[in-house]
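User: tokens in, sequence out, please.
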């Protein structure tokens, strides 16, 4: 496990080697412990949301709502061997689906955003435009297809992890991914 950089003043409440079930139990009682859950999972959840919505400001709002909902409902969360990350992806998927429903196809293209990657990889404008075209096509699909395809291909989750994040059986996930890929392929081929 990677150690998180922490300030000396935080050392009394942070145990970076603490197991997830123990951290969850402590976070139910102590908001400072929830801050560690937030630190551990903010980046992947924010990345997932951004890749789904393509708007920096909407991402910030949605991710804030996701973690607020997580903090409010953590008391009802029961650890059953499934990582809390899967639960957070589920909350994020639901929030993105609600956001998309209210947007009525007013999505900002990624090419109009200023994105600085941590990996230092140069991305050409045509690559961004192609990725944006695929993302916009994805947003026209049913939310269930959007969710499984984004978790599988944007977040690189295994099929089992997608199943955990969505709460759907593995066979259902496989079927939705297959149907979603076909629907996306048809949509992209119709657009040329």
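Assistant: Sequence out:
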């Amino acid at each position: 496990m990677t150690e998180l950089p922490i300030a000396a003043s935080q050392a009394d409440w942070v145990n970076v080697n603490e197991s997830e079930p123990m951290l969850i139990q402590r976070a139910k009682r102590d908001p400072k412990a929830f801050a560690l859950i937030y630190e551990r999972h903010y980046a992947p959840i924010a990345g997932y949301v951004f890749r789904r919505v393509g708007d920096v400001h909407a991402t910030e709002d949605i991710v804030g709502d996701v973690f607020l909902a997580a903090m409010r409902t953590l008391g009802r969360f029961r650890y059953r061997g499934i990582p809390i990350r899967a639960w957070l992806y589920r909350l994020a998927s639901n929030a993105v689906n609600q956001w998309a429903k209210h947007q009525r196809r007013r999505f900002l293209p990624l090419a109009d955003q200023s994105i600085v990657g941590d990996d230092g990889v140069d991305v050409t404008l045509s690559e961004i435009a192609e990725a944006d075209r695929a993302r916009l096509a994805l947003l026209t699909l049913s939310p269930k297809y959007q969710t499984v395809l984004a978790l599988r291909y944007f977040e690189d989750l295994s099929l089992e992890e997608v199943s955990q994040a969505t709460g759907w059986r593995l066979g259902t996930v496989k079927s939705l991914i297959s149907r979603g890929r076909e629907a996306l392929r048809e949509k992209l081929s119709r657009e040329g």
